[in-house]
Write a structure and sequence with these properties.
With 516 residues, the protein is of the alpha+beta class. Among the domains are: 102 residues, Arc Repressor Mutant, subunit A (Orthogonal Bundle), CATH 1.10.10.10; 134 residues, TolB, N-terminal domain (Rossmann fold, 3-Layer(aba) Sandwich), CATH 3.40.50.10070; 84 residues, Serine Threonine Protein Phosphatase 5, Tetratricopeptide repeat, CATH 1.25.40. The protein has 20 helices and 13 strands. A hairpin with a 4-residue loop joins strand 2 and strand 3. Helix 1 packs across helix 3, helix 9 runs parallel beside helix 11 and helix 13 runs antiparallel to helix 14. The longest helix has 30 residues. It is globular, with a radius of gyration of 25 Å.
Length: 516
């Protein structure tokens, strides 16, 4: 369908804004905003309503909305003074001032002007509702803690790509008993519900959190946490503890839901399947191969979907760096192309920046990667992957104090899944290069513990043992790496540990017992 207004045509099938036949360059979210306004001319929308419709209920700041409206006006040759297309009604919201006509494109699709807003194929992702955390006492300090935990958890979960967080939480603030999960699904269309209660026990607070599948009303996960009762320090400690256990369970639920769906998956579903699988199964040769194919299919189905090529760039770039991809020259070329394309499509999404920046560092562009990754964590300080990647790049540049700080911070705010094994391996190496051998030993052992099928932390831990002159332990640990990767080469060992230490370790080779 084509929406016509003033000198412009908005093609909702081709995702193009044309003025006198010439295409105007738009970021995807700006296109969605203009399409939403043009589909509902003269209708007033509050900021909350725009969040629901254009940002799919995600938590976004007023600055983000204002910037998007500013860019939409700029694309239309408008500004905040003239407001010829998008007018601000102070204290109430925004509306589209132009008359809009419509015509069908050659595809013959049904016009959407009188119905729901036109969206890109598969634009919706899974939707989560976090109910206000409830207290079992009237203690104002505990009530403040409950409110703070609810808000902080809602903020940090926005880092999961395509996860929509319902903004309609406040309607249940003063409700004695919240509706059941199935009722919430029927009323709001949410897929998953998180709820929790807080109970004060002496000088501590016990928090019981549960995750429910709203469609089936089945509880997927529940756990109790105990934290100090002081609200100022407890919010940070509580959120870190909860998110570490909750996020992997939420990703597992999303992954299982996608795998059980009938029919051909769309681009967004293919991306989510790849992203969730990497988190749950770990970063290995097999998982990288499957993820790469899923991401290529996603990108083919929706060429302007930036998350797919950005994640593909990370898979190919990191895979090339550590030897998880067979044809390394081809992998480097694909990683570079995918990173460039994703950054062209969306240079303001923290996840896109985190993936692409990591890939560029892995294939030899560390200076550019530093700038991109720094931008990623400024946009979203909860982006644990970007923090870890930033630390890894600092290590490549010899900035070891910064490397340790960023890697440690990224791990501290990350979920407890197999990615910690990879990040822990690089933290081990940064500590080793900083001559903090004891701390490196502890981190290396923990990194190996976190994933039984990752060879990288074992190679690096073997290097730590070698520095400690524990030759037999170095041999045993390297044998464990050969168990996982029988074709482990001297080049892959020196890529991780450097020529001197890696070369000395590679001389051990696999022993008969270790390679079995």
């Amino acid at each position: 369908m084509i929406l016509c207004f003033g000198d412009f045509e908005l093609d909702t099938d081709r995702y193009e804004l044309r003025q006198h036949g010439e295409c105007r360059q738009l970021e995807p979210r700006v296109f969605d905003l203009i399409a939403h306004f043009a589909s509902h001319p003269a209708q007033l929308f509050t900021r909350d309503e725009l969040i629901d419709e254009v940002w799919n209920g995600r938590l976004v700041s007023d600055t983000t909305i204002s910037t998007c409206i500013k860019n939409a006006r700029k694309a239309l040759g408008d500004n905040g003074v003239t407001q010829n297309y998008i007018r601000t009604i102070r204290g109430r919201g925004f509306h589209f001032t132009k008359n809009v006509s419509e015509r069908r494109t050659q595809t013959g699709r049904t016009p959407a002007l009188s119905g729901a807003r036109p969206i890109r194929p598969g634009n919706t992702g899974p939707c989560l509702l976090i109910l206000p955390f409830r207290t079992l006492s009237g203690n104002p300090e505990i009530i403040r803690l409950a409110d703070g935990l609810t808000s902080a958890l809602s903020t940090i979960l926005t880092r999961i790509p395509l996860l929509r967080l319902s903004a309609r939480t406040t309607r249940y603030n003063n409700t004695a008993v919240a509706p059941g999960a199935r009722d919430l699904h029927d009323e709001l269309g949410v897929d998953f519900v998180i709820d929790a209660n807080l109970q004060e026990i002496e000088d501590r607070v016990r928090i019981t959190v549960q995750l429910t599948d709203a469609r089936s009303d089945l509880r997927l996960w529940a756990e109790q946490f105990s934290i100090p009762a002081n609200a100022d320090s407890a919010i940070d400690k509580g959120v870190v503890a909860i998110i570490a256990k909750l996020e992997p369970q939420l990703l597992r639920a999303i992954y299982n839901t996608l795998r059980s769906n009938d029919g051909e998956p769309n681009a967004r579903q293919l991306f989510l399947e790849a992203y969730s699988m990497l988190a749950l199964r770990g970063w290995h040769h097999d998982s990288f191969s499957v993820a790469a194919e899923l991401l290529r299919r996603s990108w083919t189905l929706e060429p302007d979907f930036a998350l797919a090529p950005s994640c593909l760039s990370l898979v190919m770039g990191f895979g090339e760096r550590v030897g998880l991809i067979g044809d390394r020259d081809s992998a480097r070329a694909e990683a570079l192309d995918a990173a460039e394309r994703s950054l062209h499509l969306d240079s303001m999404d923290s996840t896109v920046l985190g993936f692409s920046g990591c890939a560029l560092a892995d294939i030899g562009y560390p200076d550019r990667a530093i700038r991109i990754l720094t931008n990623a964590v400024e946009i979203n300080p909860a982006n644990a992957q970007a923090w870890a990647a930033l630390g890894s790049v600092c290590m490549l540049q010899g900035r070891l104090d910064e490397a340790v700080t960023h890697l440690d911070h990224g791990m501290s705010i990350s979920p407890l899944d197999s990615r910690l094994s990879i990040w822990g391996a690089f933290l081990t190496l940064a500590l080793l290069l900083s001559d903090d051998v004891e701390a490196a030993l502890q981190q290396g052992q923990l990194a190996c513990q976190r994933d039984d099928h990752s060879y990288m932390p074992r190679v690096i831990l073997a290097g730590v043992h070698l520095v400690r002159e524990e030759h037999e332990r170095a041999r045993q640990t390297l044998d464990d790496a050969y168990r996982i990767k029988p074709d482990l080469s001297a080049l892959q060992i020196t890529t991780l540990l450097g020529n001197e230490l890696g070369g000395a370790l590679a001389q051990f080779g696999p022993s008969g017992s270790g390679a079995s």
